[in-house]
Amino acid sequence: MDTVFGKMGGKCLLTIHFVTAQFMLAYILEACTSRAVTDAFAELREKLGYELFSAVFPILLGDNGSEFSNPRAIEADDEGERLCRVYYCDPLCSQQKGALENNHYFIRKVIPKGTSMNPFNQEDVSLMMNHINSYSRKTLNDRTPYYIFGCLYGFDILIKLGAELIPPADIILRPALLKK
How far apart are the first and last CA of the chain? Predict the structure, then answer.
């Protein structure tokens, strides 16, 4: 997991990357705070249910940013039962989550660095992620992250997560996708 910033001080993205499938989820946060991150995970737990959440997210790897400073609130359900484990990269070792950083490249094709994320809502971010996750990758034997994730975790989970497959001819990976 990581965060992607536009202009400092505004909205940001919480990203969750599944390494094997190269599938990535992204959630718009009003601010890059620990509370915003824990709220996003609470929504994910509610959407998936505790058992499925625990199966899909057994381990979360993040950096030492202050937005990830409350691991118990990310890991546990409302009764305090641990559903997953949060681990941290070593300081200044972004290569420990290099696959996630590489996948951020696709986000930056749609939302260039320095662009404010304030105009975007979750619907915009989900649209962008549907396009990114529908783009086939050579490293996946020309399959899409959407397809590989579905094979690994089940296509029903993709529906619960609101993920949709975009036909190859309709994929847009440039700022025009989110122009309002």
Answer: 28
